[in-house]
Amino acid sequence: MKKELTVILFLLVSTLTFPALAQSIAWFNPQKVLRDSSAGRKVLAKQQALKKRFERERKNAEKPLA
């Protein structure tokens, strides 16, 4: 009798807590956060500036020496 009561209690608790656990899932979109926040826009601007600088340096390094 005690075993059955324990199993029933376990099933009842797990059934009642499952929807609460499922509702706590959240999605995180880092691209949107970077795009929409002022700090994120600063980081993206620095990244673009570095990308352009490295592209210029790469093109200069690939020029023929003659």
Provide a quick synopsis of the model.
The protein is mostly helical and 66 residues long. The protein is 80% helix and 0% strand.
What does the model show?
It is built from three helices and no strands. The protein has helices spanning 2-22, 30-36, 38-62. The longest helix has 25 residues, at 38-62. The termini are far apart.
Which terms summarize this structure?
rod-shaped, 66 residues, 3 helices, mainly alpha, single chain, 0% strand
How far is the first residue's CA from the last residue's CA?
93 Å
Question: Helix share of residues?
Answer: over 70%
Largest sheet: none
Q: Name the helix and strand elements from N-terminus to C-terminus, one letter apiece.
A: HHH
Given the structure, what is the number of helices? 3
Shape: rod-shaped
Poorly predicted ranges (pLDDT <50, ≥5 residues)?
none
Radius of gyration over all CA atoms, rounded: 28 Å
In terms of DSSP E residues, the strand content is under 5%
Mean pLDDT: 82
Total DSSP E strands: 0
* Helix/strand class: mainly alpha
